[in-house]
Amino acid sequence: MTKAKEKLVLIAGTFDLLHPGHLHLIEEAAKLGKVVVAVGTDAIVEKIKGHKPVIPENQRLFMVSKLKGVDRAVLGHETLDFTKIIAEISPDIILLGPDQGPSDEKWATMLSQKGLKIKVARLQKRTSDFSLNSTTDIIAKIKKSGNTT
Fold first, then answer.
1. Which SS3 state, helix, strand or coil, does residue 12 take?
2. Closest CA to 78 of 39, 120, 118
3. Which of 6, 65, 61 is nearest to 31 (CA)?
4. pLDDT tens digits for 2-30?
């Protein structure tokens, strides 16, 4: 009996200040197959979020590549056309976080326009094990405490 080919699962994000939400996404992706993480470049993060990440892209890429459950980490492209890196990686599944854009309908349109037949799945909820489950939450707490050095 031959073993079935393990699915390739793509997740993507900024991964700026690592937190439990990132680990939750990676753990859930690993349940589906081999995990490839596309880490957003500094330029793309700035275009999407309106500010540069706290941690430089090469350091974020290094950190993510060392996390348990990550089989490979790559730096994203300098374009907002996410289908380019998706086509290069050629995953079986794209796993999105619960509040990660764009919408499921937009993903379906983008992928079909490029002839990419890839399943898109979405986590239904954030992990609730900890109070600081996002980079935004962590930065807000730092600002509130006055420890901005």
1. strand
2. 39
3. 6
4. 445 789 999 999 999 888 889 999 999 99
